[in-house]
Amino acid sequence: MIGVREVEPTPLIVKKDILQAITTRSLPNAEVSESETIKETIDAILSGDTALLIDGCDSAIIISSRGWPTRGIEESSSETAYRGPRDGFNETLKFNISLIRRRIKDPKLKVKMHKIGVRSKTDVAVMYIEDIANDMFLREVNKRLDNIDVDAIIESSILEEFIQDDPYSPFPQIENTERPDAVAASLYEGRIALIVDNTPSVLIAPATIGTLMQSTEDYYSRWPIATIVRIIRYMAAFVAVLSPALFISVTSFNPGVLPTRLAFYVAGTRVNVPFPSVIEAFLMELTIEFLREAGTRISGPIGTTIGIVGGLIIGQAAVEAGIVSPLMIIVVAVTAIATFALPSYEVSAALRTYRFILMIFAAVLGIYGVMLGVIIMATHIVNLNSFGIPFASPYSGLGLTDGDIKDTLIKVPIRNLKYRPKFTFPRDKRRMK
Amino acid sequence: MDRKNNISLNQLEALIITSVIGVGVLTVPSVAANILGNDGWLVILLGGLLAIPFIYIMNRLNRLYPGRIFYDFGKDIIGPYLFNVINFIYLCFVLIIVAFTVRVFAEAIKVFLLNDTPIEVIIITMLFTCCYIARGNVESLARMAVLILPIIVIITVLFAMLAVPAIDFTNILPLFRFNFGDLKNIFKGAGIVFFSYSGYEIMLIAMAYVNEGKKSVRYSIRAISYVIIIYLIMFFVTLAEFGVYELKREIWPSLSLMREIELPGFFIENVDGLILSAWVLVVFATIGPYLYTLSVILSKMFNTKKHNLFVLPIVPIIFVLALIPQNLIEVYTYMEFVSKYLGIFVVAIFPTILYIIALIKRRREKCT
After folding, report:
1. Do B147 and A395 contact (CB within 8 A), yes or no?
2. What is the CATH number of the domain that holds B200?
């Protein structure tokens, strides 16, 4: 502003370089740039900027004057934590970037802007810490972003579909979160964040099973508790995939696995049930899926009512009518709860898909069939890559012996995590001396 | 990406362990007991030690041609025509071994888990499941091996721990009853047991993808040592449970032992179903690499870039081969025959001869 006052109204300067004079001295705006082509100017205007054209000058001045309706910074409703920051991303790219910047006051934190979408021209920011993140990922991310040819990117999941390694897999190969603290922590691990304008969910690459099973809250609670919670989470994953299939195979093929009294008890509860256990299981699983869908469509108090009506009344009525055994209700309910215990919604959705496949395998070949199903699933998982990193890391080898397990299956005290995880091949390996 | 298709040393180690332990673990105790009675452990140990020189040779051979697999660089050593014959012998050997492995596996599953299911169904479903991983690359095999290795360790530990209350350690005695007159018998026996250690041929492929070639010898020998330890545990536990006379008569002593274990008051009373279903994974980790080897050999013989074209067409051949033996006894007779006359060439003689020729060739090249 002082500069404006300092302008000397000598016609000589004005005549010589009017553009220079205006941009540097007389425009009281923080972001001013020049544009030389019409295309660029149009793009800027469409994004909400102002173009200043001066007679006799061969370039336009772009003045940043973007203003749009924004939502305040609120707590994310899908990722709540007991302890930890309450701020969540919103739909504005700039706010999101500054939320991350607040947590990483490092000149090496870089933001590279891309415009993706022929028509939508969505801003996508690639964020990374230059001396931690490996070039290999950066090159790959940039290459994949440049290869995208689509007219619109509405949400980050669409971008995710274009840049993930295996588009046919049910598993997410890129993490997403609405929590700035989670993004900042990932950047410190040497990963790369992709922030898409108009959406609060930020993508983080690469992702592995290990990282997808982490939750921000693990880091804000005491380590023994965090460790137990982690292990329980893995157990929940196994329960979510396997339990109905195992129940089917035990009741209809291999009751010998159970202790004799339990086997008789199980058989006793199923005496009056007219269906084989497969049909029973499918009936109940489908009911649960209907309930889940209904619950997401109608949120708020009615949604809760539907949950209660569905869970309690239908279950009770089904047992009393004698079409489903009470044990099956328990199995299905526990499975549904276990599904919600996973931190990543995408992972639990993928496991849900496999659950149905395994149930079919169990119905055909019993426990042996379940194992075949597990093998197929495991094969798919080991075949998966996330930006060239094995998706099954660290359990499939990469980083397994280098201590990545210390922050995946278990969680050791922070001061013992001297090194950054191996799977990102960080350039700066040490976190602390 | 820069780091495509390479295997770390730990993955190599896991891959060797999981490829070797498969159906061999079922029979090793009774085979050893039949040869040397209470001192069968000596045969198991010697058989394993016998594998070490060949592992060493395979390592050295692969290091002469870094980044290439054996079935490919062999033709540089002895010429494409002769080497195609050798490739064909490897092909036949692996085909037969896979067929019999899957047959024995299916018989065990039928006895213990699926009494009414036709054996053909078990064989074909297992083969198709293994196809999926064989169509991938060697890196997925290695990753899978790392995932499955803990299961093998857990099974072995569980197996030993659960059996302890039921077994009688005096059955192990008397030890060291052999004398020098048995020496011939011991070595013959070690030769037979040696084939329970076959499966490390996967190194001929996997070594090409290991970057740190120098250390790989140590890791692969360590892998075989772990296998020896697991076999020894199996031997001693079954011997202590059954005593030497009964052990000789058992076909699958390890599985019979699991049937006898009861866990009163525990949630799962009969562990055999549980352990057998985990064992499905172990067998899969054996058949998967074999199928992969088969398809790779075929792709090298027909000079194709991709190997996965050949995975599905070989399944029917294996299926038919697996059904040829009338019963389990025949399977084992055939298996012993094949291992004796074909196996010795495949896992020992061919790599050694090729290594010597390659060395001589290298010398000459250096001189000229």
Report:
1. yes
2. 1.20.1740.10
* pLDDT tens-digit series, residues B173-202: 777 776 666 777 777 777 778 778 888 888
Token pair 């001693």 in the structure block, residue: B236
Reported pTM? 0.90
The pair of three-digit structure tokens given for residue B248, joined into one six-digit string: 């000789």
pLDDT of residue A252: 87
Question: A257 contacts in B (CB within 8 Å)?
Answer: 268-270, 273-274
Considering only alpha carbons, which residue of chain A is nearest residue B273? Answer: A257
Number of domains in chain B: 1
Distance from CA of B337 to the nearest CA of A (A): 30
Residue B2 lies in a domain: no
Residue with tokens 């896979």: B98
* Residue B153 at interface with chain A, using a CB cutoff of 8 Å: no
Q: Are A209 and A393 in contact (CB under 8 A)?
A: yes
Question: Which portions of chain B are predicted below pLDDT 70?
Answer: 1-5, 178-181, 262-270, 368
Closest by Cβ to B281, choosing from A367, A371, A385: A371
Helices of type H across B302-349? 311-323, 328-338
Six token digits for residue A62: 């772009």
pLDDT tens, position by position, B209-248: 888 777 888 999 999 999 999 999 989 988 888 888 888 8
Residue B359 lies in a domain: yes
CA atoms within a 13 Å half-sphere pointing along the CA-CB vector of A348: 19
- Give the distance from residue B255's alpha carbon to the nearest chain A alpha carbon, in angstroms: 15
